[in-house]
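User: I'm curious whether this sequence folds into something compact or stays loose and floppy. Could you predict its structure so I can see for myself?
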Amino acid sequence: MSTMGTICSTEAGGARSVNMECAAAKPRPQVVRRLWALYLHWREKREGRRVLRDLTDDQLLDIGLTRRQAVKEVNKSFFWD
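Assistant: Here's the prediction. I'll summarize afterward.
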């Protein structure tokens, strides 16, 4: 009996057959999708901050920001919003 077969049969109280994989061993597509979404969100914020960094004072005024607010946003860590 394989290790996974032992774990699965123990978790299920022996009701599962040894050849069936237990649910914990299967890849979780929702986790991968969530990680991908977080990565895309991070990239979007990073790109937005790069664009914000390059705006002139007049352009910042058009969107309602001061240079100080823009610098504060650009200097934010990518770990925190």
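Summary: The first helix runs from residue 3 to 11. Helices lie at 3-11, 29-53, 57-62, 67-74.
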